[in-house]
Design the sequence.
């Protein structure tokens, strides 16, 4: 029960910030895909950088555990291509479709219905996928620091520096 | 620099706060932020009303059953949080067709509905295949 309340509160805070950052809008999401407006990239990448530093800090202090998903090239690449195609058509991702509905952009409802159908279809297709696509290039639960054999803080600094450089370039170009 | 609209926060500021929310969540409950699994669970809930025997035999639905959990509540929270934020800044707007769509494809609701539905279907299939 407690867990459900935490979920709701975390979602409330997250949805509030997504709306304030204006990343729920179809125009912003398509703007990013059309390389016209980098608002959502700025938001997402900042979130990732901050969360990366904080999460690894807590992990080094022994306070949290990472939740690593398997790298399966077949699923990651094919799934990523399909996700991108669908995202471009819909203009909302799963989380932001709910947020878009919350701020009155009710065309998100069509997308949410489609996602329920997509989820049901995937449940039907999963046994076949497990025998085919999800066996192609299965590297298991790996991370970049492990694969490269270097300390994670070196990578974090590189990512942060790259992010700041990218943001600087966006602002210069007025994106 | 893009000009800010009414009620808009800098994406860097809002994004950084969202990062802090994510860190706090992992620290407080061990939960990492995500959304797409909840759509599978919701699909299982809907299917359970009509064909529960099918839901019971599908591995993927057994693993991601028709159950309300942390992430499901998180996704509901996103809707509520966006509602509160938009009402508080006067940016809430009932809109059937987005501006950019309208300027390119016109204001017909049906056309937008069909494309959005198909897009959602394909996007969710891809998201689950990639396990994102």
Sequence:
């Amino acid at each position: 029960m407690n867990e459900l309340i935490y979920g709701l509160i975390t979602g409330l805070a997250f949805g509030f910030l997504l709306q304030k950052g204006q990343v729920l809008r179809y125009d912003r999401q398509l703007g990013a895909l059309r390389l016209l407006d980098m608002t959502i990239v700025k938001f997402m990448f900042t979130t990732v950088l901050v969360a990366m530093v904080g999460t690894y800090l807590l992990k080094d202090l022994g306070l949290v555990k990472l939740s690593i998903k398997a790298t399966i090239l077949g699923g990651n690449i094919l799934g990523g291509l399909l996700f991108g195609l669908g995202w471009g058509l819909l203009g909302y991702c799963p989380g932001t479709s709910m947020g878009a509905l919350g701020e009155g952009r009710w065309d998100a409802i069509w997308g949410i219905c489609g996602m329920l159908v997509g989820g049901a279809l995937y449940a039907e297709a999963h046994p076949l996928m497990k025998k085919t696509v999800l066996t192609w290039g299965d590297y298991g639960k790996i991370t970049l620091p492990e694969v490269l054999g270097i300390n994670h803080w070196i990578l974090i600094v590189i990512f942060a520096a790259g992010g700041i450089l990218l943001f600087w370039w966006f602002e210069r170009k007025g994106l | 620099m893009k000009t800010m609209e009414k009620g808009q926060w800098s994406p860097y500021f809002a994004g950084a706060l969202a990062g802090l929310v994510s860190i706090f969540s992992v620290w407080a409950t061990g939960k990492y932020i995500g959304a797409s699994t909840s759509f599978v669970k919701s699909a299982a809930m809907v299917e359970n009303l009509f064909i529960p025997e099918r839901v019971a035999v599908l591995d993927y639905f057994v693993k991601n059953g028709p159950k309300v959990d942390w992430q499901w509540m998180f996704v509901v929270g996103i809707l509520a949080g966006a509602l509160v934020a938009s009402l508080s800044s006067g940016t809430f707007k009932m809109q059937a067709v987005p501006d950019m769509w309208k300027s390119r494809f016109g204001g017909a609701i049906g056309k937008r509905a069909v494309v959005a539905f198909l897009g959602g279907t394909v996007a969710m299939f891809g998201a689950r295949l990639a396990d994102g």
In short: The mean pLDDT of chain A is 97. Chain A touches chain B through 107 residues (CB under 8 Å). Chain A has eight helices and two strands. The first strand of chain A starts at residue 71 and ends at 72.
